[in-house]
Write a structure and sequence with these properties.
Blueprint (H helix, E strand, L loop, with lengths): L7 E6 L3 H14 L5 E7 L2 H10 L4 E5 L7 H8 L7 E6 L5 H7 L4 E3 L4 H10 L8 H7 L6 E6 L2 E6 L3 E7 L2 E6 L3 E4 L3 H7 L4 E5 L2 E4 L3 E8 L5 E7 L5 E3 L6 H10 L1
Parallel strand pairs: 1-2, 1-3, 3-4, 4-5
Antiparallel strand pairs: 6-7, 8-9, 8-12, 9-10, 11-12, 13-14, 14-15
Helix pairs in contact: 2-3, 3-6
């Protein structure tokens, strides 16, 4: 595979070395039909995001099952790039989960990958249905382990376990960790649905991390009234709890005793 101005730039993402080697060989065979340039390989979702931050690609051959960050989560973070690559998922498991891929017109290859199937998938690559966060979240078996944001041309990962609260700010959501804030362009209600076990709503525009709740204080308002405010690990701020959500004070108060 030699460099060519019109070459299809491809990245292989798979945690198994033999699997990457096989795909590399198949790409060599495909290159006899149309120009292909292998611009990089990654052994994990994190490596893939770091690679694409430096080296743009047209297509990613992305293994679904990888440790730390699986292919479905990595694909969601790819959407944060200004020009996300087309994604062709690869999997060794030809099971019912693939019905969801077919339903949403997501391209995939079942291992062991055959030359003809890879050739056809790459031929279609530029016309592949663009990925959507909504579709990927619907077919993902479990919530993401990270949120992501693009900063200075790079995709920054934010571990969900580090997040103290999520607060709606117009069309963005402020993601607060113990050390800083990030802005993500996602819906607070969608985040609440995805992370219902990790976060609880304290008022209309704010979710707090269940694991980081330290307790509740009673605070006085300007009009002489009082309200509950939640204390979170690592933050000096106290976040107000709305009257409608006062029940969480009792629920969490019992668990914190």
């Amino acid at each position: 595979m030699t460099k060519h101005p019109q070459a299809l730039k491809v990245v292989i993402a798979d945690d198994e070395t033999p699997a990457r080697s096989r795909v590399r060989d198949l790409l060599e065979d495909c290159a006899s039909s149309f120009p292909i340039e292998l611009v990089g390989e990654a052994a994990s979702g994190r490596e893939l995001l770091a690679l694409l931050g430096k080296t743009p690609a047209d297509v990613v051959l992305l293994d679904i099952r990888m440790p730390e960050m699986d292919g479905l989560e990595a694909a969601q973070h790819l959407l944060k790039f200004p020009e996300p690559p087309a994604v062709i998922f690869t999997t060794a498991y030809n099971d019912h989960a693939l019905q969801a891929f077919e339903l949403h017109a997501l391209d995939y290859l079942v291992k062991p990958i055959r030359l003809r199937r890879l050739h056809d998938a790459l031929t279609r690559a530029r016309a592949i249905t663009p990925l959507s966060l909504d579709v990927l979240q619907r077919i993902a078996p479990e919530p993401r382990k990270h949120l992501s944001v693009q900063e200075r041309g790079k995709v920054i990962l934010i571990a969900v376990s580090d997040i103290r609260y999520l607060r709606a700010e117009l069309k963005y959501v402020t993601v607060r960790t113990a050390t800083r804030e990030h802005l993500v362009e996602e819906s607070l209600s969608r985040l609440e649905q995805e992370f219902t076990d990790q976060f609880v709503r304290i008022h209309r525009s704010c979710l707090v991390a269940r694991a980081h709740i330290m307790g509740f204080d009673k605070e006085s308002g300007d009009a002489g009234d009082s309200h509950w405010a939640v204390k979170l690990h690592g933050l000096d701020d106290r976040l107000p709890v709305s009257r409608r959500q006062q029940h969480i004070v009792k629920e969490f108060g019992r668990s914190l005793l």
